[in-house]
Amino acid sequence: MDMFVLNPGASTDAQLKMMEFLGALMGMSIRSGILLDITISRFVWKQIVGEELTKEDVRFIDDLFYQDLETILAKSKELSDEEFDKAFGETHTMSTMLSDDTVVDLVENGREIPLKRENAQSFCDKALKARLEEGKQQVEALTAGMDKTFDRRFLRMMNWKFLEYKIVGMNEVSVERLKQITSYRHCSETHEVVKRYWQVMEGFSNDEKISYLRFVWGRTRLPLKEEECVELHTIQLDENADSKRLPVGRTCFFRLELPPYESIQQMKAKLTYSINHCRAIDADFDRAGAPNEEEDPDPNNPGEPDAAEGAESDASARHRRRREGLFPDDESYGASGASGGGGGEEEE
């Protein structure tokens, strides 16, 4: 999984204020139990709680840099001066590159000084130190922001893993946890359709479970297990719906509306299609430039009817069918995302 570090080049007043704001959100997350959808490296979490960074932490964010240092140290003990200069003198100088691609000198005018075998140990030590200290200003701004919503003295009582857990939750989506916070409308957990649903969910990969949460809730992490006052995940069964329809995700209400699918295979096909292809709600589609069916006539020709008057354009027809839950290329049924919901068209 890709993870982020704080940009060591973000040093303007506005950028540091943004770091403070992120820290304030993190503090509120700890207090409220509302998780943040961010993926930050342990390189940052450890700095927030004051844990010492090691070479392994740098390896976690830049394995190529780590391997380069290891190679330089090893070769400095194996090669002669001439062989070392030939191998590294043209590609390495007494400088290093940070996460934001900024080049910093390790000695005065370092980027103009070729790396020599006798300087290999010094180069590696100073390069590692530069990487370990990158982002300190940004972390200080972030923790200052946290202090506005959460007493950061309590951070001393946490390790970095616990802090990460409290702010972003678990990356693994637990079906058992999802069951604990699920309620049912027009059905019960013993209903055959519901049983099929849970069988499909248990067979999903973690990435598919994350996509499912995004489809029905707009989030990617479940509430923490110790949180009791949480928004319930609701499964609503519509017995009268056509089983050809796709399910509907109501992201504002953390609700899934299911047609009465008749087999596990059908349930899996419909859910899989929806979570992978139906990630936008109607308002997003409109803002993205969907055609407006109620546009005024051409202001340059107010009295002349359009040559295609009375005929609905292909684009408008597709948009109308999308809003009505119909697949734009035929009259088969699909699911539409109503207010606060995610949905899409069915693929036949």
Span of the ends, CA to CA: 33 Å
Derived structural class: alpha/beta
Estimate the mean pLDDT confidence.
83
Rg is 28 Å
Helix content: 40-55%
Overall number of strands: 7
The portion of residues forming beta strands comes to 5-15%
Q: Provide the low-confidence segments as ranges.
A: 282-348
> What count of structural domains?
2
Sheet with most strands: 5 strands, mixed
Report the order of strands and helices.
Answer: HHHHHEEHHHHEHHEEEHHHE
Number of helices: 14
What topology, given as strand order, has the largest sheet?
3-4-6-5-7
Q: Looking at the structure, what is the overall shape? A: elongated
Summarize the structure in words.
The structure is a single chain. The chain is an alpha/beta fold and 348 residues long. The protein has 2 domains: 1-169, no CATH class; 175-291 and 312-342, 2-Layer Sandwich (Hect, E3 ligase catalytic fold), CATH 3.30.2410.10. Helices cover 44% and strands 7% of the residues. It has 14 helices and 7 strands. Strands 3-4-6-5-7 form a 5-stranded mixed beta sheet. The protein has a two-stranded antiparallel ribbon with strand order 1-2. The radius of gyration is 28 Å and the shape is elongated.
